[in-house]
Design goal:
The protein is of the alpha/beta class and 747 residues long. It has 4 domains: 213 residues, Rossmann fold (3-Layer(aba) Sandwich), CATH 3.40.50.300; 185 residues, Rossmann fold, CATH 3.40.50; 78 residues, Winged helix-like DNA-binding domain superfamily/Winged helix DNA-binding domain (Arc Repressor Mutant, subunit A, Orthogonal Bundle); 96 residues. The protein is built from 27 helices and 26 strands. Strands 3-4-2-5-6-1-7 form a 7-stranded parallel sheet, with helices on both faces. Strands 8-15-14-11-13-12 form a 6-stranded parallel sheet, with helices on both faces. Helix 3 packs parallel to helix 4 and helix 16 packs across helix 21. The protein is globular and about 75 Å long.
């Protein structure tokens, strides 16, 4: 169908909404989605640019069908990774459906029980929910599932790229597979995202065991122009007193830092978001912006947004961005996703985005209403001392930022989503969840139910048997005299906590209150009289209530020096290879500002002098050697383990590494000789299991500690290590020696 035909097919309610919104025509995503939803019974992946109208594209035809033929239960289940995204979409859908007779319900930890009761009393319309709340519903409201979802037509999963590579995403697919089993049919599944790196993997993931065909139409790109600027600053140590404004206390001293002043000047003249990569960094940048406002006597238009803040503080930032008032929000990933923030003019990114996908999501937050998306990327680092070792003279984070940009510009590359082969933490959690919701089952019946869930398709029966035996031994499960399994005492203790429903690690958070106002949460208590940063402010502790996990505070001027991790997230090998290409090349990048261009030139001189382009292993002086593998996180970690395992025969010691950028160690051997030895070591098949110590407990996910150790080590080897990319290093070493040999033969 054409755009005009689709518009005519929409119900009057939708057509009126389009007229009221002033849209002149339907967008490509809306046309493609309507053709799939109206014209087939297939599942759908809708991947298109940020702000391309994906939500409306999915809901317009669905609302049309539901108003024409209302189901006798909830008709649409909408699953989103963030409460803020659900709240935002709730407001938009509620306004759209006011006169439709289709109610919209949202269900998560911040929603009032009275609102949830309305759904339970009369289930219909649209239910928006988090994965954790859906898990709770499956366990605790099993008797109501058919009544709530018996007429379910559609399941919409938003921002699927954030879910696929995590246990949380596989948990969602488990939940849908379980729901299908209860209902006796599979509702159509629709996945929404702006950044999918591997469409085939996404198709398999979303399909699960639904049995439906899936379509993923190619959506023409909307935004061809982007505006980028990348700048670099060295951190300055000088301080000045802020004088009369705002206070004369020591806390009113602020670092004179050109980098922070640049961020301030870039952001406050436009409606902007300042993205950083951790909550701690976000707190610090927001407090710094407050201080610069005070020093300059400007109106303070800076707000803050991250997951540890109270709902009211987060909503204050969202509402201000949606308004016509000046606003700058300091944020983490919580504003990276599809919250409607209106007309945003500029994004400022402090440090490199963690991935190409993150870069695209954040860039796409700006440039609405016809303007090109715009990002200022800012890097700050300590000025190297004269005796700084060579690897630390390379601006790794800045190189990573350029690489992330160029991978998209040059290749349209987005990281593929990695789906685990043996997700043992989720396997443990779903075993307890299924058993708690179903009652007693034989081991065979339980195994059939669990291993038929699509995320566990690669799990071997013997491995699952090993897990069950361990769970019985540790009293997570109880083996009854009739041979059936029930939840054991240890399992019951886990199930009693609402934290069980989440598969991601949680902390024992303490609620922070100033008077009657809820500020947010922190992970550990702070002694009375001490200070900490939260919500872009500094607070002094007045009282601790450890029993109730409450901290009472009052605001004080100034900011807190906060340290945060220098690395974050998994890095793909293509990013490292592009970093190598940038460092060892001579290509100019037009978006580099003067400082950044100079910093890159200096790094290239260092790399050239050290022969980093031709040599993977160089001497740093004395017995210290440095290896540059140019491998992504999993392959890099694998190489580190290989070097440590064979350290004796290689003659190396004191192995250390920085992120996935370089490895240093001590060795008396010649670099060329050692390079050949390492290349030989990497020649042939390497079993990852041999790289995991027999006594090692590689705990990374929430329930890993509850899993049988040998099974945990196997899962780590399968999903955390990677040997296939080590051929990069071996093949390049062979080429290096061939080149050296040819040079020696020349007269």
């Amino acid at each position: 169908m054409t755009g005009e035909e689709i518009f005519s097919r929409y119900c009057p309610l939708v057509r009126d909404y389009i007229y009221a919104s002033g849209w002149k025509e339907l967008r490509p995503a809306q046309i493609e989605a309507a053709n799939v939803i109206f014209g087939s019974d297939d599942n759908l992946i809708l991947s298109s640019d940020t702000a391309s109208g994906k939500t409306e594209a999915a809901f317009f035809p669905i609302i049309t069908e539901l108003t024409e033929n209302p189901p006798m239960s909830v008709g649409v289940l909408y699953i989103a990774p963030l409460k803020s995204l659900i709240n935002d979409q709730f407001s938009r859908l509620d306004a759209l459906l006011t006169d439709s007779g289709l109610p919209v319900f949202h269900w998560h930890g911040d929603v009032a029980q009275s609102h949830k009761k309305k759904l339970l009393d009369d289930p219909k319309g649209v239910l928006q929910i988090t994965p954790e709340s859906l898990e709770s519903m499956l366990i605790n409201r099993g008797a109501d599932i058919l009544r709530i979802f018996g007429g379910l037509r559609y399941v919409i999963i938003d921002e699927i790229h954030t879910l696929m590579s995590a246990d949380r995403g596989n948990q969602v697919i488990c939940q849908l597979d379980r729901l299908d089993r209860i209902l006796g049919f599979s509702a159509r599944r629709i996945g929404l995202s702006a950044t999918i790196g591997d469409m085939e993997s996404a198709r398999r993931w979303l399909t699960g065991s639904s049995g439906r065909n899936i379509q993923a139409p190619v959506i023409p790109g909307g935004k061809s122009r982007i505006k980028l600027a990348l700048q670099h600053f060295y951190i300055q140590d000088e301080t000045t007193d802020s004088g009369e404004n705002p206070a004369e206390s020591p806390e009113s001293k602020i670092a004179i830092d050109a980098g922070y002043e640049y961020i301030y000047d870039c952001s406050r003249t436009q409606k902007s978001i300042i993205f950083s990569n951790s909550r701690e960094e976000t707190e610090y940048i927001c407090a710094t912006m407050h201080q610069i406002c005070a020093l300059r006597g400007d109106n303070d238009i800076f707000f803050i947004h991250h997951g540890n803040l109270s709902a009211s503080i987060r909503e204050e930032a969202e509402d201000r961005l949606k308004s016509d008032l000046p606003c700058v929000a300091c944020a983490t990933v919580t504003m990276e996703l599809g919250i409607d923030i209106g007309r945003l003019e500029r994004v400022v990114q402090l440090g490199s985005p963690s991935k190409v996908s993150s870069f695209l999501q954040r860039l796409g937050r700006s440039g609405r209403r016809g303007a090109p998306p715009e990002m200022f990327m800012v890097f700050r680092e300590e000025n190297p001392l004269p005796d700084t070792p060579l690897p630390q003279l390379i601006p790794w984070d800045m190189l990573r930022g350029i690489a992330v940009i160029q991978l998209y510009i040059d290749e349209k590359f987005v990281e593929p989503q990695y789906v685990k082969k043996l997700p043992v933490s989720l396997l443990f959690q779903q075993t307890l969840s299924v058993l708690a919701s179903s009652g007693a089952l034989t081991p065979k019946a339980l195994a059939e139910r669990i291993l038929s869930l699509s995320p566990f398709a690669a799990v071997e029966k013997e491995d699952y048997r090993s897990l069950l035996v361990h769970m019985i031994k540790k009293d997570y499960l109880s083996l009854c005299e009739d041979g059936t399994l029930l939840v054991g005492l240890a399992g019951e203790r886990l199930l009693k906590s609402f934290k069980f429903y989440a598969v991601f690690k949680d902390s024992e958070d303490y609620s922070v209150k100033s008077g009657s106002d809820e500020i947010g949460t922190i992970s550990s208590p702070v002694p009375v009289g001490d200070r900490f940063a939260l919500a872009g402010r500094v607070w002094e502790v007045e009282e601790l209530d450890l029993a109730r996990k409450l901290i009472f505070v009052h605001s004080v001027p100034g900011k807190m020096e906060i340290s945060w991790p220098g690395d974050y997230g998994e890095v793909h090998t293509k990013v490292l290879r592009k970093m190598f290409e940038i460092l060892c090349g001579d290509r100019d990048f037009p978006y580099l500002k003067a400082n950044a261009r100079e910093r890159l030139a200096a790094a290239r001189r260092v790399a050239g002098n050290a022969k980093i382009k031709s040599d993977r292993l160089i001497s740093l002086g004395g017995s210290t050697k440095c290896l540059f593998p140019w491998l992504g996180t999993r392959s890099f970690s694998t190489l580190v383990r290989i070097l440590k395992k064979h350290a004796g025969e290689l003659g190396i010691r004191s192995i250390e590494h920085n992120g996935c950028y370089y490895i240093t160690f001590k060795s008396e051997r010649d670099c060329a000789d050692l390079t050949a030895a390492i290349a030989s070591l990497l020649d042939g098949e390497i079993d990852p299991m041999t790289l995991v110590g027999k006594g090692e407990l590689p705990i990374s996910e929430k329930y890993d500690a509850c899993v049988e150790p040998e099974l945990l080590r196997k899962a780590f080897a399968l999903d955390r290590l990677r040997t296939d990319e080590l051929t990069f290093l071996r093949e390049e070493t062979v080429l290096f020696f061939e080149k050296k040999s040819r040079q020696k033969k020349l007269p």
